[in-house]
Design a protein that fits this description.
heterodimer; A: PH-domain like; six-stranded mixed β-sheet; five-stranded mixed β-sheet; 15 helices; 19 strands; B: mainly alpha; about 65% helix; globular
Chain lengths: ~600, ~325
């Protein structure tokens, strides 16, 4: 039995004997953040949990795309006091623990792959768990205002399942009386044509689609899991674990992520079998397989106290403005799913697929997704000295040419600018493209120039100060030479030198320098020739003198001139030779750097 | 009486359609730039090796990026009526266009730009074939080019093998598929001689008497010779002689389009092994309609050495048969 009380926030109650459970659900999540504020919801929850978390008390918290959920199990008294203290902490956030909790969040390893970021970019539903770079910029005031705005009573629903209706003492930040939950961010169009491959790496093969969040999706997930288990594990032994997980987006749409753990030796054939098996579901699914999947899902409805079981889900649906089906309606919706429904949904959702493949590319004919593929910008060019790369910065944005690849971020489409205290910058585009500005990796780009060219184009709220112990070190000579060689090789291969206007200017300067050096080398070569001539001439004179000595002449004065002159010429020869070799060698090195 | 299996006269020296059933009709459709008519002819075929030969021959006409090539690609796309056969032809067309861009050079001589375009065409092909194999998993002709796309896209030997195995589970005697997979596991495609050799023996061991399984021995021996093994070991010559006797020269052998390929490769092998007497029956079987097989590896203008070697083999065979006591 479900009932409301007149208190704020809204409280859902279901009677259930035995174990007591309760929770607070908030209409706030990762999709409400920006990259520059990312992590702020998780940090607010972490700070509030400090007020209640005790060893032995079963508390869990999760931050989803649009819903944040804290649950607690225990005695009626513990659940009641926990929820009470939690709301108090949210109303008066213990921000003094900000640094500790930020560190702890940094330490937390998530298994998030970041596939959503490849689908939607670094914005709204593309911001996944584990993305909390924004915490570096969050102030105490930011945290308090986020908590007051998003953890307000109007934006929350509490639920309680226990023996008796509780007298909950909840004191959330006051929301306007009768105010509706915060509106949902719309699910944007994908930032790239799909299906495609998301190059996120890792040892697993993953196929993720977006589909309407309907009961058929649950059956499809179960059918897919069973088919993969049969083909990949039972028949071939190519995987140990296959999974099919549904993730909430905005309540109307959901992600279905199918994955299998692979080992390197058989990753290729396992990936092929994985995709062929899933691809087949678009055309045919056996009625028996659907029946087995349905039966598996319907097991949940054999549990007693159905109202209590669905209560947390109901709380989320209320906040999302979704109709709340009764347990009987939920059961019927799954029992009605047919094989044709599953095939149809598998086919329709295929076109939204993102693939993560541990080996190869071009699976199922997919292209590998790339970031920053927009039109390149014009402006000043700066060559990296550690790799064959050039950055061009203009008023519109920046383009990084790294080898043959060009990545562009427009200032108007900036997700965040990460600013290091040493002057290094990382410009991150909404589509996830990154352009690094590292003064230590350029000869011609210093921190003030970066600030002038980049910082002033990015709105202040998107700049995140990110500390780091040391900037990257200037590369050693060998590395610089390697980069120069790579640059030269590429330019030769590209058959003609592709240069931006800015790079051409830099190139002209270098050419003038080269010319000066060339003249120097030529002059030295002349001196060398003269010195060699002088040495040889002195030698000849010495022989003549020795001849005249044998004839009886003893002109010691001539000898006193010839020998030092000869030795001097030999010394000059040696010095100029060394100088020519050195300059020529450096010239060669420079020429390679310049490409 | 002439059958559809008899060679159809042609203007080109090597004609891949010469030994395909209804080759003349196919050639007429091809020359008229009418893939729909060609597909109608292929629809009458049952043997996967015939279908494969016909599809590749049609798709491999004027490959590359010329106007003519683009017209053919467009015509093949227009002829796609959604049947697995028409879709497979479209995919094979994409493969041949891509491969023409890549050229037949070894990987280190192909520029990055060429590779991008090559992979682009292969992905288009793979997209089509993936869908065909998803919808019609038992359709053998679509699995055969999927072995080639796996190779070109470098999806890994394991995947190429899985695709071959899927095909072999449907029909274990598709010689074209065996040849394609054998290419995949050669050292030039980062396989190894051991692996390739194992596969050759595997095919030979599984072959029914008179079927082409053992003929792969000749392909393998030619590849070894190309790799620099200039003197063919006598044991190898014996092994290939055995293979010829067990396949194309076997009384139970049933002719398919792949028979001609096997003959021409046997002829090439015995030529490089300096055994013209053994080469002759294969030259003779091809008659006036030679097929290229691996002769283009022997010489880029393969028709000249083919004719020269054929004449030498004919003379040697005549001489041998004239001498009493020496088997021809």
């Amino acid at each position: 039995m479900t009932g409301d009380t007149l208190e704020l926030p809204r409280i859902l109650f279901a009677r259930r004997p035995g174990r007591v459970a309760g929770g607070l659900v908030f209409r706030v999540g990762l999709a409400d953040e920006t990259l520059a504020t990312s992590g702020i919801t998780a940090l607010v929850v972490a700070l509030a949990l400090r007020a209640v978390e005790r060893p032995g008390l079963d508390i869990s918290a999760s931050v989803g795309p649009v819903v944040t959920h804290v649950r607690v199990n225990g005695s009626a008294e513990r659940v009641r006091t926990t929820l009470r203290d939690l709301t108090r902490a949210l109303a008066s956030l213990p921000v003094q623990h900000r640094e500790t909790e930020t560190r702890a969040l940094d330490e937390r390893q998530t298994d998030a792959l970041g596939v959503l970021a490849w689908r939607y970019g670094f914005q709204s539903y593309g911001l996944g768990p584990g993305q909390h770079v924004g915490l570096h910029g969050a102030t105490d005031a930011d945290l308090r205002s986020w908590s007051a705005e998003r953890f307000a009573s109007s934006n929350a629903v509490a639920w309680y399942a226990g023996d008796e209706e509780p007298d909950l003492d909840l004191a959330l930040p006051a929301g306007a009386l009768g105010a509706a939950p915060h509106p949902l961010p719309a699910v944007p169009e994908p930032v790239r044509p799909l299906p495609a491959e998301a190059p996120v790496g890792g040892p697993n093969v993953v196929w993720e689609v977006v589909a309407p969040d309907v009961p058929t999706l649950q059956v499809l997930a179960e059918v897919a899991r069973r088919a993969l288990f049969q083909r990949m594990r039972q028949d071939q032994g190519w995987t140990y674990d296959v999974s099919a997980t549904i993730g909430v987006l905005d309540g109307r749409q959901a992600t279905l992520r199918v994955a299998a753990g692979l080992r390197p030796e058989t990753a290729a054939e396992a990936t092929g079998e994985f995709l062929d098996t899933l691809g087949r579901l678009r055309y045919a699914v056996a009625e028996d397989d659907v029946a087995a999947a349905r039966a598996h899902l319907l097991l949940a409805f054999d549990e007693p106290h159905q109202e209590a079981m669905w209560l947390p889900d109901e709380a989320a649906l209320v906040l999302l403005g979704q109709p709340v089906p009764s347990p009987t309606e939920r059961r019927a919706a799954i029992a009605d799913v047919t094989a044709a429904d599953v095939v149809s949904l598998a086919g329709a959702s295929w076109e939204t697929g993102l693939l993560v493949a541990p080996v190869g590319s071009g699976w199922a004919g997919t292209d590998v997704a790339r970031r920053g593929t927009g039109e390149v910008v014009t402006g000043r060019a700066f060559e990296r000295i550690d790799v064959d790369a050039t950055i061009v910065v203009g008023d519109q944005g920046a383009t990084l040419r790294d080898g043959r690849t060009r990545t562009t971020v427009r200032f108007a489409e900036t997700a965040a600018l990460l600013a290091h205290p040493d002057g290094g910058r990382l410009l991150v585009g909404l589509d996830g493209a990154r352009i690094p500005f590292e003064p230590t990796q350029h000869d011609d780009l210093d921190a003030p120039t970066v600030a002038e060219l980049v910082d002033r184009h990015v709105p202040e709220e998107l700049v995140v100060p990110v500390p780091r112990a040391t900037p990257p070190q200037r590369p050693d000579k060998e590395r610089i030479k390697q980069a120069g060689r790579a640059r030269a090789d590429r330019e030769v291969e590209e058959d003609g030198i592709l240069r931006t206007a800015g790079a051409a200017v830099v190139g002209t300067g270098k050419a003038a320098l080269e010319l000066g050096k060339l003249i120097g080398v030529l002059a030295l070569a002349l001196v060398l020739l003269a010195a060699v001539g002088g040495t040889l001439f002195s030698g000849v004179l010495l022989m003549v003198w020795i001849g005249s000595l044998l004839d009886g002449e003893r002109d010691w004065l001539t000898l006193a001139v010839i020998v030092p002159a000869g030795l001097a010429c030999a010394g000059i020869t040696r010095l100029t030779y060394k100088a020519v070799i050195k300059m020529g060698g450096e010239d060669k090195g420079k020429a390679e750097d310049a490409g | 009486m002439a059958t559809t299996r008899d060679a159809a006269p042609t203007a080109n020296f090597f004609d891949p359609l010469a030994h395909v059933p209804d080759g003349a009709a196919l050639r007429a459709a091809r020359d008229a730039g009418d893939p729909t008519a060609a597909l109608a002819v292929i629809r009458g075929m049952i043997v996967p090796d015939d279908i494969a030969a016909a599809l590749w021959a049609l798709a491999d006409t004027s490959a590359g990026v010329t106007d003519e090539a683009q017209q053919l690609t467009a015509a093949i796309e227009a002829a796609d009526d959604g049947t697995p056969l028409a879709r497979t032809l479209r995919a094979i067309r994409y493969v041949t266009v891509g491969w023409a861009i890549r050229s037949h050079a070894r990987a280190e001589h192909v520029s990055a730009g060429q590779f991008e375009q090559f992979h682009d065409w292969l992905r288009r092909a793979e997209r089509v074939l993936f869908d065909v194999c998803s919808e019609h998993p038992d359709y053998v002709p679509a699995w055969e080019p999927r072995i080639t796309t796996a190779r070109g896209l470098q999806l890994g030997h394991g995947e190429a093998r899985r695709r071959y195995d899927r095909l072999a589970a449907l029909d274990p005697q598709v010689f074209a598929a065996q040849q394609v997979y054998h290419q995949q596991i050669l050292p030039k495609w980062s396989g190894s001689w051991e692996e390739a050799s194992r596969f050759v023996e595997e095919c030979a061991a599984a072959a029914a008497p008179g079927s082409l399984g053992s003929a792969l021995v000749a392909d393998h021996a030619i590849e070894r010779w190309l790799d620099g093994e200039k003197k063919v070991p006598s044991a190898m010559v014996d092994r290939v002689r055995e293979a010829a006797a067990a396949t194309v020269l076997h009384p139970d052998h049933v002719r398919t389009a792949a028979t001609a390929t096997a003959h021409t490769n046997f002829a090439l092998f015995f030529t490089i092994a300096k055994a013209p007497v053994d080469a002759w029956p294969h030259f003779e079987a091809l008659g006036s309609s030679p097929v290229e097989g691996m002769w283009s590896y022997y010489d880029l203008r393969a028709e000249v050495p083919y004719q020269v070697q054929r004449d030498l083999a004919a003379k040697a065979a005549a001489k041998a048969s004239a001498r009493p006591g020496v088997p021809a």
